[in-house]
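Intended use. Records like the one below are meant for learning the mapping from a protein sequence to its folded structure. Do not use them to infer anything beyond what is encoded.
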Amino acid sequence: MLPVLNAIESEEDKIKISELFTEYYNLMLYISKGILKDHALAEDAVSDSFVKIFRNIHKIEEIKCHKTRALIVVIVRNSAIDIYNKMNKNSTIYDKAVLAIPSISPSVVDEIISIEGYSNMVDIFNSLPESLKVVAKLAFIHKYEYKEISELLGITYDTVRKRISRAKNAIKNALND
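Structure written out for the chain above:
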């Protein structure tokens, strides 16, 4: 954590990163340990996540809000999955790790979208496959650009573009039904 703080020039950003660390460290460690099953690797995932958060600190407005919590959950989950994939190059993470991801109650998406009238949209969004849901959440809810999503998740720009397109088509088809 200290190298990240030393790299930050703005005092406001230092305070924000410190507050994020204080508020979300235990949650981040819990999520990454659920995926990696190893404390040291889980701490690596949390550290990697804070580097990614630092790169996008300007997008975080409030520390204690559902939107920030959801963003941090997505980032740490993907950092842990990246580490898991590096450790197990021959296996696919989605088959094994999704089962190991600890559930966070109540659902992050349900917390973010709590306005009546959107319940149908929430159901449709939640029915998306996890790979599409994560990318769609970053694009539609957090307003990240495709390039930023690519960097955050460690996937190619084209993969992000295809997943967004598939998510839009799935949502459109569900709404037509």
